[in-house]
Structures are given as structure tokens and as C-alpha cells.
Amino acid sequence: MTGYVIYLSSTNSTSRHLEHYGYWTGEHYQHQGKFYPICEEKITENTKIYKYEITANNAAERAFKKFGEVSRFMVLKNERGQ
């Protein structure tokens, strides 16, 4: 499906190296009071695909605020048939 996907990444607080979460599935889990995104390395059938770029941007901003470990996000156009 053509649309937009969200790619999330974080910075390891001890080493300051960029660590990649991956393509967000739109799901999350909670551990010890913190929320973490569920992501995959590649775009798969589990990846959340947004029909409109504005919707993907809004969701990415909400995810950025919700997941304390996320330091960056990118909204990318998905033109594959996933």
C-alpha cells in the first residue's frame, strides 16, 4: 500500500551512539512505567502505513512525546506494495 511510514531512532544515554528502533508498527509496550515502541527493521505487513503525510507527522510527534527513549523520527513515503 502506498502511504507514509514512521521511522524511529534513539540515542543511548551512556554512549551517545544513535540506536535505531526501526519502522513503527503503531504498537507499544510498557515496562517499569516507561513506554517503548514496537518496531521492525524493514517495512513489513506489521508496519503502520498512514494514508496522508499530515496524519503520519501528527502520529510521529505524539510518539516522540510518549516514548522517552526516542530522540528522532522520520516520516518517509512508502511506495512499495507492503
Automatic annotation (TrEMBL):
Annotated organism of origin: Bacillus pumilus (Bacillus mesentericus)
Protein's recorded name: Uncharacterized protein
